[in-house]
Automatic annotation (TrEMBL):
It comes from the Bacteria. The lineage of its organism: Bacteria, Bacillati, Actinomycetota, Actinomycetes, Micrococcales. This is DUF1643 domain-containing protein. InterPro entries: DUF1643.
Amino acid sequence: MVSADDGARFVLGTVGEHPFVCVGVNPSTATPERLDATVTRVARRAAALGFDSWVMLNLYPQRSTDPAGLHERADAALVADNERAIADVLRRRPGALCAAWGTLIGSRPYLAGLARRVIAIADTAGCSWSALGNVTAAGHPRHPLYVRGDAPLVPFDARAYADQLP
């Protein structure tokens, strides 16, 4: 699901009964026909972990190949559309989510607040959280590109994480 001008993407994935649902920081160039490096890694991890499908969500939906290119201030309409899309996905398929935004959450000050909001949406839907391998030294869940391909899924205490965010 993308915006009319293709400047934002809200949901990308495949259809199945047991999806691997990842939450990144922002979408890049991936489309259903052409996956980018991050989404390729997510799709491979889903298969390796025994999931029959995958879904990629993001804290902020603006497409940018570099998080430094994100809006200086969050676009309220994009945030609202993104949160509705996330809530819709989780309402239809509640379960486990993989936190996968890495240290990129520090790219913009508003991303921490958006993480807290997405975590609250997931809590409302009754979801649990995991991360790929151990968290970073700063406590952030690792980005799929910056973790070994065989890193296990480990429990991630998203509420405690949200409480320590600035």
